[in-house]
Write a structure and sequence with these properties.
CATH class: Alpha Beta
Radius of gyration: 20 Å
CATH topology: Rossmann fold
Largest sheet: 7 strands, parallel
Structural class: alpha/beta
Shape: globular
CATH architecture: 3-Layer(aba) Sandwich
Distance between the termini: 72 Å
Strand content: 5-15%
Number of helices: 8
Helix content: 40-55%
Length: 249
Amino acid sequence: MNGHPRPAPLKSISRPGVKPEARFLAARRSVLGETARLFRIGMEFVRAFRVFRKIGPAVTVFGSARFDEDHPVYEMSRQIGAQLAREGFAVLTGGGPGVMEAANRGAKEAGGASLGCNIVLPYEQKPNEFVDRALTFEYFFVRKAILMKYSYAFIIMPGGVGTLDELTEAVTLIQAGKLYDFPVILVGRSFWSGLHDWVRGTLAKEGTVSLEDFSFVHTADSPEEVLQIIRKTADGLGLTLRPLPLTVD
């Protein structure tokens, strides 16, 4: 006995409730079985291409699913969604609760296009009620590719591990030249300050990154700042936007 705790037993990939992506990543199958799965993955892409091919310029909003409507981050996300819609952008999210719901809600209330890419999870996340058109995906990587593909900017609200994954995915794709250098906007300077300091004080200092590679990463504290950054991108790309008419309450 060495006093170390024993590792938790691995979950069987054959038991009920284990999702197809887990089986895909954990199991070895025959060539025929892998080919059949590849077809199912391809069909998820095809289905998304058909749905989103005519949505026009869009902006994706990432962030935590855990904020309720009384939280300041929820309200900020709602305002950002509304501002983007009024500017003529479709608002694209992961389709779930929290920040995603708030951004979709703002876009819908403003009269804009509100879209969601939902994911099948063990706790059965459902599309929020403010999504006009939602697709539900089995595979995380397919969903993430679609959220990246149709966007001209990525807004990163406060969030957890999933949000960090989406942030680093966007930064990596842009840094590697797989995406144009669309703006990645971290909303909430105080929330993201620790990450900012770590990148500059540790990664850059140790030479693992170059700060020049992060020229497309911005910070903001208000919907107005976010919109100002995105407007510069739209003007630079020559995007044709159709701003919504102003309304009087």
